[in-house]
Amino acid sequence: MNKTEIITTLYENANPENAAPMKKYMKDKFDFLGLKKPERNLLSKQFLKGAKKDETIDWNFVFRLWSFPEREFQYLAMEYLVALKELLTEEDLSKLKQLILDKSWWDTVDLIAAKLVGEIGVRNRGFTESAMKKWAKSEDIWIARTALLFQLKYKEDTNKELLKEVIKCNLGTKEFFIDKAIGWALREYSKTDPDFVRNVIETVDLAPLAKREGGKYV
């Protein structure tokens, strides 16, 4: 299945009955084809299996998918990038930033942060950490949220001092998605280093939401 065929396949399998409630769940921010994840995965399985054999990332295809109004195409773009994540380089960070800033919402931003920016960070640690220090100070909440969440899957490889630094950059914002991200990052890392997280909760002036979310396991 080629790139044109997967786009056609998704359109041909659109389900208007599902589309309306899916759009409502996302606060009416995006149109939907009405393809829920299990069906979407089934339809794209063959395409993504073939894509894994690619030697380069087709960024024109990614941005083309991002331009479609239906949200399922942004999901497909991310799944395509995840399939080729080992090809991501530090030069691709700016492209991921474009995706974060366009059609921004938690459903795309969180995956880009943890699975794509995080992947670049694994192999380009110094470069990515330097970039995330800058992103943490961004006035755009989704860029800042990415800096908070990119280490989400790192476990014992988490740079905990960097985690603390990016949290401190985002205190007092009163932004739900920022405070939620702080709590999520702390909660996830508490599975690895509960003492560190406990110390952050006790010594840093976190918002009540961040403190509550971050302290669930400590």
Short description, anyone?
The chain has 13 helices and no strands.
Task: State which percent range the strand residues make up.
Answer: under 5%
> What structural class is derived from the secondary structure elements?
mainly alpha
| Overall CATH class of the domain at 3-154 | Mainly Alpha
CATH level-3 fold name of the domain at 3-154: Leucine-rich Repeat Variant
Q: How many strand segments? A: 0
Any low-confidence stretches, pLDDT <50, length ≥5?
Answer: none
- What characterizes the major β-sheet? none
Q: Please trace the helix and strand order, writing H or E for each element.
A: HHHHHHHHHHHHH
Query: What's the Cα radius of gyration?
Result: 18 Å
Distance between the termini: 48 Å
- What is the level-2 CATH architecture name of the domain at 3-154? Alpha Horseshoe
Number of helices: 13
Return the average pLDDT rounded to an integer: 98
Description:
The structure is a single chain. By secondary structure, the chain is mainly alpha-helical. It has a domain at 3-154: Leucine-rich Repeat Variant (Alpha Horseshoe). The chain contains 13 helices and no strands. Helix 7 packs antiparallel against helix 8 and helix 11 runs antiparallel to helix 12. The N and C termini lie far apart (48 Å).
